[in-house]
Amino acid sequence: MSGQVKDCGAAPKSGSPGFSLIELLVVLSIIGLIVGLVGPKVLNYLETSKVKSARFQIDGFSKALDLYFIDAGRYPSTAEGLDAIVRKPGSSAAWNGPYLKSDKLPDDPWGNRYNYRSPGEHGKYDLYSYGADGRDGGVGNDADITNWDVGAATASTEKR
Question: Which NCBIfam families match (predicted)?
Answer without folding.
Answer: IV_pilin_GFxxxE, typeII_sec_gspG
